[in-house]
Amino acid sequence: MTGEYIRKARSLVKPSFLGALALLGGLSPAAADALAQGAGSYRIAPNSSIRFHVGQVAGAGINGSFGSFGGSFAINGNDVSKSSVAFTLYPKSVRAGEPRVEDFLRSNAVFDVAEHPQITFRSTSVRRIGPNEAAISGVLTARGRSGPAKFDARLRQLGSRSISFHVTGSIYRTAYGMGVGAPIYSNVVQFDMVLNGTRR
Amino acid sequence: MSRNRDVSFGLTAILLHWTIAALFLGELVLGFWMTRVKDMALQFELIQWHKSFGLLVLVLAVLRILWRIVAGRPPALPTLSRLERASAATVQALLLAATILVPLAGWALVSASTLRIPTLLFGQVLIPHLPLIPSGHAEAFWSRGHALLAYGSAVLVLAHTAAALGHHFLLRDDVLRRILPLPTRDPLARVGDYGEQR
């Protein structure tokens, strides 16, 4: 399922000239610096996708997504490490293919959306780890608990008014009071996201 | 000592009877409670315990049947009428069947559920699903079957308990005493006990 998703995501990629250059080796660092070329402020677009996977003992696990979210990010062209991200997720919008699983996730067993309608991420540092890739560290707050979280963002597409990143990262859910079902269900929630930004 | 004696049940049969009885009754209460509890995290955990204890009942019930085949069982007390013997034997056979069928139906329910929640026996050992095709229809069928068998068993437990208590307190015979680790009142039965101890 993830493979199919990645294939679809790849087929949608229309690399910009800069992006294509950046993906090629042997170019000068300046020409390859697509991240810096994308400098600016962006609003996270609704056509982004937030997918997650929780593994389980002997089985497919839970594959789900969130339909409602928002946020913004700013890319600093002079110093990518000074870029920032603020992201808010509304866990009530969770989809998991089975209504009973969704109700369970919304309940006080997991997200407790009645008491904690938002999950937020605020970056604290951005570190470049490749020509098109950055590691974003920050604070994730869910169910009233905050903890460190880290995501890797890889540039997929750069346009004049938009930018798109493939963002992946893993969260240990027990740290946020969502440990129900372990060890049947993994403690690790793997996120696989496509964040599209539109220039503000 | 552990084999069934002429009048009283042996220690193995007594232990199996009361262990299964306690677990089975606990499962009836747990099953009723867990489906009504509002806290969904608690409900999830209770269901996992219910699955583990249910499988334990199943294993013990199979052992009990094997033990019955190996060790036999003491004959019915001669003081019982033919009708009493027949009704007691029927209820006991149905209860024995229930300790196999109720857990099996629960296992089938878990296996047919579209939730596909694995069973980790007491959080340690993965128990495979039964080879059933999960569907909403199959899950509803086994859910109803498991519940009906459980409620039916509860009625049987009541009848069995009422009969045992009636024999013990009203008729003051050995029907209950011989499945307890107590000496029987019947002197003939004691002879059997003494005979074994020699």
TrEMBL record, chain A:
The keyword Heme does not apply. SMART domains: YceI. Residues 1-32 form the signal peptide. Residues 41-198 form the Lipid/polyisoprenoid-binding YceI-like domain. Keywords: Signal. It comes from the Bacteria. Pfam families: YceI. The keyword Signal applies. This is Polyisoprenoid-binding protein.
Automatic annotation (TrEMBL), chain B:
InterPro entries: Cyt_b561_bac/Ni-Hgenase, Cytochrome_b561_oxidase, Di-haem_cyt_TM. It comes from the Bacteria. One of its GO terms (biological process) is respiratory electron transport chain. PANTHER family: CYTOCHROME B561, CYTOCHROME B561 HOMOLOG 2. Keywords: Cell membrane, Electron transport, Heme, Iron, Membrane, Metal-binding, Transmembrane, Transmembrane helix, Transport. Belongs to the cytochrome b561 family. Residues 9-181 form the Cytochrome b561 bacterial/Ni-hydrogenase domain. It is a multi-pass membrane protein. It is found in: Cell membrane. Its cofactor is heme b. GO terms for cellular component: plasma membrane. This is Cytochrome b. SUPFAM superfamilies: Transmembrane di-heme cytochromes. The keyword Membrane applies. One of its GO terms (molecular function) is metal ion binding. The chain crosses the membrane at residues 7-33, 53-70, 91-110, 148-171.
